[in-house]
Amino acid sequence: MFHYLSQFGDQISVLNVFRYITFRTGGATVTALLFSFVFGPTIIAALRVRQGRGQPIRDDGPQNHLVSKIGTPTMGGLMILSGLVVSTLLWADLTSGYVWIVLMVTLGFGLIGLYDDFLKVTRQTHKGFSGRARLSAEFVIALIACYLVTLVGQAPLSTAMTFPFFKDLVFNLGWFFVPIAAFIVVGSGNAVNLTDGLDGLAIVPVMIAAASFGFIAYLSGNAVFADYLQIHFTLGTGELAVVCGAVIGAGLGFLWFNAPPAAIFMGDTGSLALGGLIGAVAVSTKHEIVLAIIGGLFVLEAVSVIIQVASFKLTGRRVFKMAPIHHHFEHLGWTEPQIVIRFWIIAVMLALIGLSTLKIR
């Protein structure tokens, strides 16, 4: 919305600032942060009243969770998504197809997570609706979004997959790009969902990934910077930096209330949506493989679950004391703050490695 004010820059020179993505990214960050601060307490109070006993706690998990976390409301993703969407609509250039595609994935995955959280709260069980049905719904949304990416993008790059460290290594997948990219988006959403198990554990790595991909989107969408760094120029993706800025602001506001002891949990409403958003931005900017590096912490959490399930079904033994892997470290005696802060450090290191691929070509 504010981007349209730049059209009057010739008459009122100060309005020219709205042309710049960097300025609008900062505005989106601050707006989403203030939205969370202003409306966060009201949202938390409303959810606490409506949910009563709050998010059900797994009885097979760490026993201290049954004491420290019981009664805490979930669906905190509503706070994040509302601030994110409002901020994006205010500050982004709404003529960008990429902005609408990413918002579609974010809200679509958010609705799936909201329904899952609703079933868990009303039934007072940690199991939501059918995993197969949930994945099917996610894939439908992701397939549509990735197909739209191929329409908005410029051929032949729109259906191609690029590789980090190599400036000319590009594989044009044709129509196979759509299902492969959809798998990446769905995998990203569920990996973040698995990471969301301790206070503050998921939201900070999400913000780190959002900051990294906001930077990548800005560079990829700028022909001069893309040429200098020898990365592939993707016209229009620069506006996704504004969306990522909104994620950072909304995430910071949520973290204020999610810091231990948490007043609210993100729930599937937030984790699925934010993971899907990061995946959609990675696909749009043609940095799908870099996502596995920057989001390596989420990959680790997801792989730990896959290994645990496969090992138990094949051998009857568990590799980890509990999966996802952050619960394994809890059983080893690590305190919650130790796990969370150390995982944050890992997320920062992986982000720096991922960003280094922009220069090492």
Would you kindly provide a written description of the structure presented here, covering whatever features stand out?
Helices cover 65% and strands 2% of the residues. With 361 residues, the protein is mainly alpha-helical. It has one domain (21-305, 335-356). The radius of gyration is 20 Å and the shape is globular.
Which features does this protein show?
361 residues, 2% strand, single chain, mainly alpha, globular, two-stranded antiparallel ribbon
Number of strands: 2
Q: How much β-strand is present in the residues?
A: under 5%
Low-confidence residue ranges = none
Give the overall average pLDDT: 89
Query: How many domains would you count in the coordinates?
Result: 1
Based on helices, strands and strand pairing, what is the structural class?
mainly alpha
Give me the number of helical elements: 14
Strand order of the largest sheet: 1-2
Distance between the termini: 37 Å
Biggest pleated-sheet summary:
2 strands, antiparallel
What is the topology?
Layout: H1 21-51, H2 65-68, H3 77-91, H4 97-123, H5 131-152, E1 160-162, E2 170-172, H6 177-195, H7 203-220, H8 223-229, H9 240-258, H10 267-284, H11 288-294, H12 296-315, H13 325-331, H14 336-356
Antiparallel strand pairs: 1-2
Helix pairs in contact: 1-3, 1-9, 3-4, 3-9, 3-10, 4-5, 4-10, 5-6, 5-10, 6-10, 6-12, 7-9, 7-10, 7-14, 10-11, 11-12, 11-14
